[in-house]
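Appendix C reproduces, verbatim, an entry submitted by the partner laboratory led by Prof. M.T., so that reviewers can inspect both the input and the predicted structure.
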Amino acid sequence: MNQDEIEAEVLRLQPQARARLARKLLESLETLSDEENERLWAEEADRRDSDWDSTPASARPAADVLRDARAKLR
């Protein structure tokens, strides 16, 4: 099975089973080595940087984002 097939199968599970699986998956990430964690964060930073470079028009000023977030919390 590929990742998409596994995901589709998992989403067919009952909510309690999905929650149990999610908990196990999250716990498995806590056992990563420092080196693996650093590598994964570096890959994520590279991915976000590439996304940013490819769609600069989607960026918003931080002040606008914070203003909108505060408005939603009211």
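Residues 34-54 form the longest helix (21 residues). Additional entries are available on request from the coordinating office.
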